[in-house]
Amino acid sequence: MKEEQTAAAKNAVRRNDMAEHGLRKDSLREPLVLGNPTLHDITEKISSIAVGAPNKKFMLALTITGLMAAWGVVAIVYTIITGIGVWGLNNPMGWGWDITNFVFWVGIGHAGTLISAILFLFRQKWRTAINRAAEAMTIFAVICALLFPLLHTGRPWLAVYWLLPYPNQMQMWTNFRSPLEWDVFAVGTYFTVSLLFWFTGLVPDLAMLRNYAKNKLGRTLYGFFSLGWVGSSRHWHHYEMAYMILAGLSTPLVLSVHSIVSFDFAVSVLPGWHTTIFPPYFVAGAIFSGFAMVITLMVVAREVLDLHQFITLKHFDNMNKIILATGMMVGYAYAMEFFIAWYSGSSYELFVFKNRATGDYAWSYWIMILCNVISPQIFWSAKMRRSIPVMFIVSIFVNIGMWFERFTIISTSLHHDYLPASWGYYSPTWVEISIFIGTFGIFLSLFLLFTKFLPVIATAEVKAILPNAQPKHGHHGGSSTLNPGEAH
Amino acid sequence: METTSTMPYAVMGNFYDPNKLIHAAEHIRDAGYEKFDIHTPYPVHGIDQAMGIKRTSLPKFSLGGALFGLANSIGLIWWTGSVHYPLNIGGKPLFAFQFSIPVMFELTVLLCALTTVFVMFGYLCRLPKWFHEYQHDEGFRAAVDDTFVVVIQSDDSRFTETGAKGLLEKLGAENVRTVAANTEYSHV
């Protein structure tokens, strides 16, 4: 009897020891929020970021990104008043940096929706720390993306009737057979639904902020946009269902958007574009690039805003695993394209791919391979997945690589046509480069403003996953859909 | 003020432990109260059953929105391309489901999402409501921060002030108090 007791006591001590080192079986999972904050600590932390006055560092950063954006606007205005002849586009290359940038930015957005919708449906509770910022990133990236096709039309003020079916005096409608028209609906819907999802998630947090706003303007704006949310359980009941439905809708939506973007290429008859692998390959690439951008931004935001408590190495570890997985998916797609080019027996197809790896744009192809296929392999090492400098550098590499992927796809199929007589080579002008820099300025400025004035962490969701936030199991079979289960 | 006498008031109590809160919600429900609410900073699991909230009708509205979007997309593509301005492209059929599927899908999702959000906030939650009659109460305001606030309304048929207060105190509520509804406009 006594022996048993001492054994039990020893075990208890051992369990405590192991728990301290995070080794006990039921605490094998690392905590998602560090430092055991109370609910009020979280409120204080996130509110203080949002309502405090902007500091010098913030103003400096905003000035730089603002100047970038302004420079982009100069180039845009120049393009609009002169015509897109100021770009480097000419036969045979009618698409260049503009469409590359469009696909690049749309792709960036995909991580946000993946985190907010797909990881939600898969009950991945670690998403709560990063979903707000990732969704914001989605919306800002899609805004940047939309600029490019609009400018590419050359006369954006007429684009309304080219793009949208509305009754006009010419009695003309859009052509719904065109993948470009599908794109209008896909990207438009994507933007609207992402915005709704983001806003819905923000409402309870804005309600929290309205109590903390330091001035009347802040109180009025937070109060206005929080719609008068008072945390009623009768409201939460509807709210959670809406959140679930939005997640359910966004999941197929995010897969459809980049599939439809890939149709812009795949539905044409050009060798190198006309392939069935494009939709899944584009979706994997979009998630790949999106997570890279999330890491680039969150590494910086975590340091500057001191969010170490909420965004832990575990979050980065998980994201780096996704980068590794999707990176290998695109690597597989690159290889499979070559295999099919050979296996199809089409000499044009084979030529395009040989030309892609060894032709005029081979430099672009090999940058892509280096950045997208080789660089993420470092994440096989758990240590590297948790190293902030390593992941920051790799995420930049992936961002660059994914831009070059789109550029490679566009340039190699267009610059060498079926007829050698019409072959050409395309380089961008300063105007195209400036517009691209400008979109980075717009994107980063919006993101900076977001981090300053809105809750950067989905506070209500993080509160809901704190260890003692929910009633214990077996009590009443919870029907709550937002972050079910106990937090670990 | 004339209106104050007809305006309902409420008995409130704070909770900080979700287990106690669920327990309290069940007891208030079982005591037959209907006009009561529990304000929480985040959704608490199982509180809807504990309070006896009926399952939301939102999915029906969402389905309606989705079907509306689907019907409209088919109508739009078919009517504009083959009735109002027949668009002959290489002799292909004027309408076919194959080429319509991407736009059909997108409009279905779009209308469903818009319906879901607007019906949820606007109809089911009756928001925006930029004025709340108990917002002047500091404890009530803390419901979006760190406090679970149980509110029992005076216009409930079973309500007596002493009864409601006694019940909340028995259930372990802290700072049980009577709060008069504010009729003057103020920010939520």
Widest sheet, order of strands of chain B: 2-3-1-4
The topology string of helices and strands of chain A comes to HHHHHHHHHHHHHHHHH
CATH topology of the largest domain in chain B: Alpha-Beta Plaits
> Which stretches of chain A are poorly predicted, pLDDT < 50 over at least 5 residues?
12-27, 474-488
Structural class of chain B, by secondary structure, is alpha+beta
Describe what you observe in this structure:
The complex is a heterodimer of chains A (488) and B (188). Helices cover 68% and strands 0% of the residues of chain A. Chain A has 488 residues and is mainly α. The two termini of chain A are 34 Å apart. In chain A, 50% of the residues are buried. Chain B has 188 residues and is α+β, with helices and mostly antiparallel strands. Chain B folds into 2 domains: 101 residues, Alpha-Beta Plaits (2-Layer Sandwich), CATH 3.30.70; 67 residues, no CATH class. Chain B is 49% helix and 13% strand. In chain B, helix 4 runs antiparallel to helix 5. The radius of gyration of chain B is 25 Å and the shape is elongated. The N terminus of chain B is likely disordered. Chains A and B meet through helix 2, helix 7, helix 8, helix 9 and helix 17 of A and helix 2, strand 2, helix 3, helix 4 and helix 5 of B.
